[in-house]
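Notes, p. 3: input format for complexes.
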Amino acid sequence: YAAKESQSRRERFRDEFDQRASEHARLGAQLREALDQGQFQLVYQPIVALPHGEIAGVEALIRWHHPELGFMSPADFIPVAERNGQIVELGAWILLEACSQAATWMATLGSAAPGKVSVNVSARQLAEPDFAEVVAAVLAATGLPADRLAIEVTETAVFGGGRAIEALDAVHRLGVRIALDDFGTGHSSLGLLQTCPVDILKVDKSFVDNVTMAGRHAVIATALINVSDGLNLDAIAEGVETAEQARELYRLGYRYAQGYHFGRPVANPQFALESAAA
Ligand code: C2E
Ligand code: MG
Ligand code: MG
Ligand code: MG
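Output follows (278 residues plus C2E):
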């Protein structure tokens, strides 16, 4: 009986596994079409200066309007695109789209344009031997000055890869700024600060969530701003949802923040209006 049960459990597991694999295969095929059919869109979330909330930059975040499933979260399809390699083509499209949008804002808004656009880059993209050339080509094609672009990488993407550090060094030499995303949640955090050409630490939302309460998170948020200041990096607090958090972060020494409290990601941010209202 026990053997029978474990066999059926194994079968159920295999079924589930097969189902998931075929879902991924289907999603992979749909991803390929999605790019051709214009189903992707970038939205932009403000990164603001504390304490008053002037816009310092924006982060580009991808959205997929799936023909049957409707809105799909990047957390669900980026990992699939990474696994099957499509993130390389998709990532190049994202860079081009974000940089041409940023160049258009500069041309149409002048000094009201956001100072920087941040683009998320995955481990798989960094592993491509021509990553820096793709970035250089995008800057040349769009005319965006290199210092107006930041690329966001996670510690996990950079960890363990000599190739990834080389790619970041090459991009950094172009004048592009490098941000470590979700800082404090991946592998190796502090060690990376010695080997990686970092300009910006994006302190993960998990340390921001409870920053107003005395406890571990506040202690870590404090330690991270000290490290950041000591190394002359800009720290950005991620996922700020309340005025209390923003005030406390400012008190701890944070000068930049991002989160729903300041603005959600939107397709057409109204920079001129927002700065006039601030
Ligand atoms: P991330 O780069 O850390 O982006 C921040 C995520 O937190 C975004 O989710 C953003 O909408 C969300 N967020 C911002 N402020 C708040 C807040 O106050 N509260 C809460 N609860 N959430 C907030 P999103 O757009 O769903 O993206 C999720 C992740 O998917 C990103 O995390 C990034 O790792 C990845 N991703 C998004 N766009 C791209 C892309 O263009 N390329 C690559 N490679 N990855 C991307
Ligand atoms: Mg990011
Ligand atoms: Mg992040
Ligand atoms: Mg995050």
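Strands lie at 40-49, 54-66, 70-72, 117-120, 149-154, 177-183, 200-203, 234-237, 256-257.
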